[in-house]
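ligand=magnesium ion
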Amino acid sequence: MTDTNRLVFEYKIGLLAPSQVGKSTLIASLLSEGQRMLNRETTVQLTAADRLTGNRIANADNSVTGALKARVFRPMLMPGTSDPSWFRLLLEPRGHDLPIRFDILDYPGGWLENGGEGPEHEQKWNECEAFLADSSVLIVPIDSVLLMEARAENAALLTAHLAVFQIKQVVLRWAKNRRERAGEPAMVVFCPVKCETYLSDSGSLQDQATDLKHQVVDQFSEVLETLREAAPHASVRYLPIDTYGCVELVSARWVQRPGAPGDIKLEPKYRVRPPGTIARKGLEDLISLLCRQLVDSARMQSEQTAAQREATARYSREYADLREGFFRDLWLKVSGERGRRERIAEADQEHYLEAHETTRSLFDVLAALGERRSSPRLHHLS
Ligand SMILES: Nc1nc2c(ncn2[C@@H]2O[C@H](COP(=O)(O)OP(=O)(O)O)[C@@H](O)[C@H]2O)c(=O)[nH]1
Ligand SMILES: [Mg+2]
C-alpha cells in the first residue's frame, strides 16, 4: 500500500494446544466455513490474503473430505505440522475498500509441550511464543476424547496430557500484555474439539454437554484463575466445536508412547457416519465471535484516528486562515506560503473525512454482524 494515510487493521490470533488436538484442522475449517457462512449471510467476506494460505487450506480441506468420502478416518495418519506457518486472512466489508487482516499461527504442538528439540526449535518456539503473547485473541482447542475418556485409571495424567501448565504460562504472559494495552481486543475462547460423540446436536444419542463443560472448567481452573487475576477485562468464552461432525468415537485405548506423560497416549478410533459429509458445528459461532471482536477493535482504532485527524485538520485550517498584518499577509501571498498552508489544510481535512467514513462503514458492518444470533453451544465464562 502506497498511501501512508490509509488506515491499516491487523490482528493476531493464536492457538494453544499440544500436538494432535486439532489446531491445523480448526484453522483450515475456519476459512472454509467462514467463506461459506459470510458469503451467504453478511456484509463481509473472508478470503485468503496470499496464495500460500490459500494452498494450505485447499490441501487440508481435500485430505479431510477425501478421507471421509472413502470412509476411512484414521486420525493418526494425518500429517503433523512440522514448521510454524502463518495463515493470513482478510475480512473485508462488501463494497468498502478496508480489509481487516488477521494472521493465525500454526506450529507443531510438541513445541508447546516441551519447547521442541535442539536450539533451532527453541529459537522458532521463542518466535511463536512472542506471537502468542501479542495476539488479540487466543483460541484453546481441547481434546474432548481425552477429557471424557481418561477417567479413573489415568485421571492423574490428564493435566499433563492436556498441557495445562504450559498453557497457563503462555496465557499469563498474554494476559499481562493485554492489561498493558487495555484499549485493544482481548478474548480467550476455550474450544473442546472432537466432541461429536458427546453432544446431541451433532447427532449423538447421548447428551453429555454439561459434563464436558464441567470437565473443561475443572481441568483449566488455574488457567481461568490466571485470566481473572491478570486480565480481568478479557472476555472468556466456551465453545465446543466439531470440525467434522459426521464421525463417531468407537473406542479410545491407551497405547505405549515413550516420551508422552506416563509413556502412554490415548488412541481414538472413529466410525464415519453415512453419508460421510462434513457437518461442522460451532464454527459459525467462532467466526462470528472473531469478526465482531476484530471489527469492533477496528472501529475503535478508526474512531481514535478520526478524532486525532479532526484536531489536526482544525489546526491546519486556522493556520491557513490566520491573518498576520497587511505587509506580512502580502508576503505570504506573493511567496506562495499562503497557498502551501491552504493545500495542507485541504489534505488534512480529506484525511479526516476518510477516517470518519471508515468508522461509519465499520459501524454498519458491526450492526449487520450483530444481527446473527449465537447458538446454544456458546457460553460466557467471564
Ligand atoms: N473427530 C474429530 N477429529 C478431529 C477434529 N479435529 C481434528 N481431528 C483429528 O485429530 C487429528 C489431529 O488434528 P490436527 O489438526 O493435525 O492437530 P494438531 O496437531 O493440533 O494440528 C487429525 O487426525 C484430525 O483429523 C474434530 O473436531 N473431530
Ligand atoms: Mg498441526
